[in-house]
Amino acid sequence: MLWIPFTLAAAFTQALRNAQQKQLSREVNAIGVTLARFIWALPLAAIYLALLYAIAPAAIPQFSGRFIFDVSAAAVTQILATALMVLLFQRRSYTAGVGLAKSEALLAAMLGSMFFGALLGPVGWLGIAVGSVAVWLLKGRSKPGSLDLTTLLVGLGSGLCFALTTLWIRDACHQLDLPFMHTAAWALVWTISIQVALLTGWLVLRDRPTLLRLWQRPSLVFRISLSSSIASLCWFTAVNLEEVALVKTLGQIEVFFTLLLSQHWLKEQVSAREKLGLLLIVASAVLVVAPSLISR
């Protein structure tokens, strides 16, 4: 049952990181905010890995081609997921943005049913229907200069990329014959290294002013990286210990952390429509995985 405290810690620190990214997105573009998530997370992850080996020595693993593919694919999809969510924050409120991105669990279930032979029963499809209603509520009403369809697609795209990231990370962790803490740490270091290289290279070549804006907000950037590294480490460890669907279902508790941070820290007004949408997202995820929970 160790996966439960790791999942709860991941959900809270992820909600905190998202709120911090929402703040930074008022001043920095989506690529810059995405880099802020990883730039200090790399040395933090490396220090954690070194301390882990000092406390609990283990073998240095052989990294297979499949492991490298998995962490590379996860790195790219996590970049895309984060950038899309930042765009969502800029178009909508923090609460609605997180809610649309939490379509991740539903999209993973649908893709599994359509392409990977995972069967969904009537209760699971009811969950998909409830989730569809939730997404419709969260996308909001039409506003001047705002395309609701675009907002919806950005949110669903973010959820899809987060789902793929989690699946690839779980597969990568299972390629290493090490204790679960070590496998999660290695996956984290590899993934963040690739992300920092890609994003920094892009900004150096195409958008140096964004790097300057990040340099001017050192405290906020460090806090984003710190909460991000803790969240990622906890997610990676949890999905290494338990099935992704179960981890992500418990992870829906992030919705409640989101509501608290939105109202009491960011001082955003959360509409009754958005609150209902968030609750339905949670309910839909529970319905999707309930049959597998009962049969265990």
Would you spell out the secondary-structure blueprint of this structure?
Blueprint: H1 3-24, H2 30-38, H3 41-55, H4 65-91, H5 94-101, H6 104-115, H7 122-139, H8 148-173, H9 180-206, H10 208-215, H11 218-241, H12 244-250, H13 254-264, H14 272-295
Helix pairs in contact: 1-11, 1-13, 2-4, 2-9, 2-10, 2-11, 3-9, 3-11, 4-5, 4-8, 4-9, 5-8, 5-13, 6-8, 7-14, 8-11, 9-10, 9-11, 12-14
Features:
296 residues; mainly alpha; 0% strand; globular
Task: Give the count of structural domains.
Answer: 1
| Tally of individual helices | 14
Overall morphology: globular
Structural class of the helices, strands and pairings? Answer: mainly alpha
Helix proportion: over 70%
Measured between the Cα atoms of the first and last residue, the distance is: 14 Å
Strand content: under 5%
Radius of gyration: 19 Å
Low-confidence stretches: none
Give the SSE order as H and E letters: HHHHHHHHHHHHHH
Largest sheet: none
Structure summary, number of beta strands? 0
Global mean pLDDT: 82
